[in-house]
Amino acid sequence: MLFIKDNFIDETVAAIPLKGNTFHYVIDKDVPLDKYRMILDNSVQFEMILGTKDSVYADIKFKNNTGDVKFTGTRLAENQVTGEIQGWSYVEYYLQDNMFIDLPDRFTDQLVDDWNDAMNESGRFKTVDNYIPGDDFTQKNKKVITIKFLNYWTAFLKKREAMFPGKETKETSDIKRMKEMVRLDDESLLSDHSYFDYVMYQLISENKADIPEDTKALQAIAAMKPGSYKDKMLYYQLKKSVEEAADKAERDSLLNRYLYTFRDKKYSAVIADKARIIESLGKGKPAPVFDAITVDKQPFNLAQLKGKYVVIDVWATWCVPCRIQSPHFEKMAIKYKDEPVKFVAASTDRRINDWFVEAKGKSKSVLQVHLNDANLFQEAYDVQGIPRFILIGPGGELINARMPFPEDRLFEKELREALGLKENK
Fold it and tell me: Is the pTM of this model over 0.85?
């Protein structure tokens, strides 16, 4: 099965069956011009540019959980653009090093120069066969570029206010011209998170209350006119706030205040489900059970390790960050082999043979297992990306469903605290 999903709510735009390694599908609804994810067999993903009435052809080469795709059709040129054409900018480095915060004219001149260069560059793209992107894509890309530089301007204002409180920073005519290019209610830009950041700064910059920015953002969104734009803004911010809430009481307060204010109830359902999963993965909650198989082809389930602490590394053979963390994980397993803790590497590989070959060469200090249903596991543990590390107590209770990476000293600190060992000096 081939899925096309949007990048905002992860909503399925199309579910396309494969027949004899080929597919054909007509999307019978409006599809805003945007970047979408094409997901093949729940493993390999590609990004694609697509809009209403487009005809896009995809030639996919797929083997061993990796793949390559070549797009042709009405969006041939757009799909050859590797990311937005935004160019290189001096002001990004100025901000990193806090340069020219005391010289707004110098900073602004450079920002405008960089913006002009990026805008000019964005209009020059063409393929080797001299195909160029459509005007709709080019204009949208110019807005995305402008948002990037307006966010640089915002970051400059924040730094300047912190260093020179109360000192006025005037907007030049060029900055005003940039702002005129980007409306504060452009729904077509909401899949770009930098646009959300830009809009929220404009909405809350005058709110001087001593409350968190996320709270200010929710208050500002709640005051918007009901509609699709407000729904999407609220979804983005409420999901973020729920995920970052300190405890159940804070999550419940957010949900009670905002969950039922969506006009489109699909957003309410997604956030309610996200809150439910977060709650189920809280400290002390029962760890979701799962079944797997070992490299010796023996069945494995979590209950077999009851009485021991369990540290799980969720990984896959194709995952580069997983390969980076694996040696650190094995080092911890060897170091604590005499403690009542078991280190388990749980593979999400679609092809069990890919896992089997690599797992056989891993350290015997780590129990290597292959998940029987990786999708079910990832849903139960809210695994949005790998590697992911999970700490479970001897009674099968969750201690931390989102541990730091093993290379981080906090990983070992949390492990030692759970085991009742003194902190390393």
Answer: no
